[in-house]
Design goal:
seven-stranded mixed beta sheet; two-stranded antiparallel sheet; 11 helices; 9 strands; 18% strand
Length: 252
């Protein structure tokens, strides 16, 4: 399948009401498959693409923003002739869901967001000072022609202070990550115009529970289900409960 000139891998199973599922950063459709396989026999046709740059799909030719990924998802809907879908988004897929639910609500019936990203926590003072000092030193080295030392400094800083997701990618996807993670989507959350089920792991360290609690307050029609002791992949840790909750939401 070709979308935006990129070869895209996907899993499509089942027959019935369409559900499009969007995976998290660094993941692929394989981590959605267990949920899709449980939903499909319940009267759903489940679409699980590998987003560009992940799984077996091509990477974009230049760094993408979150809005490029939203455009991709809309093109994916169109490719399959899907006027309206139920949506599931995990982590990074949840970022996409917030924008889709706000800007393209006519294409979404109902939505489930699991351990969704999209809210930026306040940056503590010490990391702010450290980042400013690093940028100033690196710029100074470049200004006096010591580019190799500046690049060595950049590599050391990224390895020492970069997040796991940042260090897991390189090249075009690393710059894509920087552009995506810097977007705070509170304004979109407040304008989501479809019913939303929020699923969260109580012990999620990547997108902490306070994010789910804030999204529940921001999104006009949202309910939050918290799985005790679960982590960032709470929907997989509590697969049976997640399937039941989604079945009730999408059938209502």
């Amino acid at each position: 399948m070709m979308i935006h000139g990129l070869t895209i891998n996907e899993l499509v199973i089942g027959e019935g009401v369409p559900v499009v599922m969007l995976h998290g950063w660094g993941a692929s459709s394989e981590l959605l498959k267990p949920l899709g396989e449980r939903l499909a026999p319940l009267g759903f046709r489940v679409y699980m693409p590998d987003l560009p740059g992940f799984g077996n799909s091509d990477a974009p030719p230049i760094p993408w923003t979150i809005y490029d990924y939203v455009d991709f998802v809309l093109a994916y809907f169109d490719h399959h002739g899907l006027d309206q879908v139920h949506l599931f988004g995990h982590s990074f897929g949840g970022r996409l869901g917030l924008i889709l639910g706000a800007e393209y609500s006519a294409r979404i019936m109902k939505m489930t967001l699991a351990d969704a990203a999209g809210l930026r926590p306040p940056t503590p003072l010490i990391p702010q000072i450290r980042l400013k000092a690093y940028k100033a030193i690196r710029q100074g080295l470049n200004n006096i022609g010591l580019r190799s030392i500046a690049e060595s400094l950049r590599g050391w800083y990224n390895n020492r202070y970069g997040s796991t997701d940042f260090n897991a990618v390189s090249g075009v996807m690393r710059q894509t990550f920087v552009q995506v993670v810097n977007e705070d989507l509170r304004q979109y959350a407040a304008r989501v115009r479809v019913p939303v089920l929020l699923i969260w792991g109580e012990a999620d360290a990547d997108t902490p529970l306070w994010m789910g609690q804030e999204l529940e307050k921001l999104i006009p029609d949202a309910g939050l289900v918290v799985y005790p002791g679960a982590g960032h992949y709470s929907y997989l840790e509590n697969l049976g409960q997640t399937v039941k909750a989604m079945q009730v939401l999408y059938a209502g």
